[in-house]
Amino acid sequence: MPKLNSSQAPILFFLILVILLCSTQTQCHTKGLRLRPRNQKNVNTTSQRQNPEEEFMKWVRFVGSLKHSVFKAAENKLFPSYTLTVHKNQNKGDFTNIQDAIDSLPLINLVRVVIKVHAGVFKEKVNIPPMKSFVTIEGEGAETTIVEWGGTAQTPDTKGNPMGTFNSASFAVNSPFFVAKNITFKNTTPVPLPGAVGKQAVALRVSADNAAFFGCKMLGAQDTLYDHSGRHYYKDCYIEGSVDFIFGNALSLYEGCHVHAIADKLGAVTAQGRGSVLEDTGFSFVNCKVTGTGVLYLGRAWGPFSRVVFAYTYMDNIILPRGWYNWGDPSREMTVFYGQYKCTGEGANYAGRVAWAKELTDDEAKPFISLTFIDGSEWIKGVKGALKVRELNDRLMMAERALTDRDGLSGRPWYKHMVYGPAKYDEYGSKSFPGIDDAIDNAKRVKTKASWGLVQHEIWRVSRVIRHASIVLKGVLR
């Protein structure tokens, strides 16, 4: 047998490595790769190109049938390890602006940190670096807690060059497992004139996996929400803009959101950027509403394989009858996936829609209208439960504080908050634990010092109910 010389050995090693890699079955999932069950015969590639969405829905059903996620495990740190406060008054908080609170975290953050932002307008540009994961930003209400900046794509950067759309964001999320609740992200740039160049002005950019937003507002004009990349969940959010004001190439579910247009003439809600049939990305709007001014496309095909679905959504009469625009490229009409399912309102009339959009059947819509679309059973439900546990613990602290007050309860702001609780309840709220509100109502009816014993008893009962609920939830969510 002839010996290998020094130049042939690396080539032979490389060939052997390629053969070994190609002969093994893929057992994990990353975006851009498709799973194929064992022993499945090769599918005709022409068929795959002709029916990419059918293949995608087969894949979604396959994922939903598994007992575990095929995405990378979302090891979310649900319960806060420590809390920081941001307050305009330096004597009442740990920091006076949000970026300073972010900068105080270790370079590589491995624990959940809750940053409570008190009411106020914070005029600053905020950036969360990639390694500072597990950050929660919690405002006192989207109406009163606002982060704003006025950058555009043509705004000069530190070197004097235009910063571009990507860097124009008032608030940028680059780290995974981010959560925001009850806060507004705003870009103060006004609505640009038709045809204006360089006026893209992002209010919020999300460029990381496993990000969730609850009760937040995103305010801007052109390119308000840059839903850049990763799996994202938006619940009960308000998103305002004029042109392409929800755009990017993320895999995102918008549930119960209010999408409001402020276009002077012609605008568009979405510009989804899916660039390949292999990319598992797209936007799904479920139980949302679309209102505003001007006339709107539901979406423009920014990417050649753009994917957007509206389901159970109310559409005002501002929607153009054709509904969708091919970005001036007729070839995209063969590859995009634009769907509508059981929508209502004058703008939802499907009669005038473009021929290359779809009115989905029950089976076609199913993959897009649940948390399965973003693999949410793994990480979203845990985030919801953790937020509710925090809420219950806050009420527990108020109840325990009441035990030390023997001067009556009527009229005290903290007591009113304890009595009425949060404005909304979800599956972990008072409907599941009716004893909380019943006990508080009984305590509220007692207003005299002579009846303090009854007040004390009722507050003690509230404390026990809330504490029990918190313990139960923590046990379930671990």
From TrEMBL:
<comment type="pathway">
    <text>Glycan metabolism; pectin degradation; 2-dehydro-3-deoxy-D-gluconate from pectin: step 1/5.</text>
</comment>
<protein>
    <recommendedName>
        <fullName>Pectinesterase</fullName>
        <ecNumber>3.1.1.11</ecNumber>
    </recommendedName>
</protein>
<dbReference type="GO" id="GO:0042545">
    <property type="term" value="P:cell wall modification"/>
</dbReference>
<feature type="active site">
    <location>
        <position position="244"/>
    </location>
</feature>
<keyword id="KW-0862">Zinc</keyword>
<comment type="similarity">
    <text>Belongs to the peptidase M28 family. M28B subfamily.</text>
</comment>
<dbReference type="InterPro" id="IPR033131">
    <property type="entry name" value="Pectinesterase_Asp_AS"/>
</dbReference>
<dbReference type="InterPro" id="IPR011050">
    <property type="entry name" value="Pectin_lyase_fold/virulence"/>
</dbReference>
<keyword id="KW-0479">Metal-binding</keyword>
<dbReference type="GO" id="GO:0046872">
    <property type="term" value="F:metal ion binding"/>
</dbReference>
<keyword id="KW-0645">Protease</keyword>
<keyword id="KW-0732">Signal</keyword>
<feature type="domain" description="Pectinesterase catalytic">
    <location>
        <begin position="89"/>
        <end position="376"/>
    </location>
</feature>
<dbReference type="InterPro" id="IPR012334">
    <property type="entry name" value="Pectin_lyas_fold"/>
</dbReference>
<keyword id="KW-0482">Metalloprotease</keyword>
<dbReference type="Pfam" id="PF01095">
    <property type="entry name" value="Pectinesterase"/>
</dbReference>
<comment type="similarity">
    <text>Belongs to the pectinesterase family.</text>
</comment>
<dbReference type="GO" id="GO:0006508">
    <property type="term" value="P:proteolysis"/>
</dbReference>
<keyword id="KW-0063">Aspartyl esterase</keyword>
<dbReference type="Pfam" id="PF04253">
    <property type="entry name" value="TFR_dimer"/>
</dbReference>
<dbReference type="InterPro" id="IPR007365">
    <property type="entry name" value="TFR-like_dimer_dom"/>
</dbReference>
<dbReference type="GO" id="GO:0008237">
    <property type="term" value="F:metallopeptidase activity"/>
</dbReference>
<dbReference type="InterPro" id="IPR000070">
    <property type="entry name" value="Pectinesterase_cat"/>
</dbReference>
<keyword id="KW-0378">Hydrolase</keyword>
<feature type="signal peptide">
    <location>
        <begin position="1"/>
        <end position="28"/>
    </location>
</feature>
<keyword id="KW-0325">Glycoprotein</keyword>
<dbReference type="GO" id="GO:0030599">
    <property type="term" value="F:pectinesterase activity"/>
</dbReference>
<feature type="domain" description="Transferrin receptor-like dimerisation">
    <location>
        <begin position="379"/>
        <end position="473"/>
    </location>
</feature>
<dbReference type="GO" id="GO:0045490">
    <property type="term" value="P:pectin catabolic process"/>
</dbReference>
<dbReference type="InterPro" id="IPR036757">
    <property type="entry name" value="TFR-like_dimer_dom_sf"/>
</dbReference>
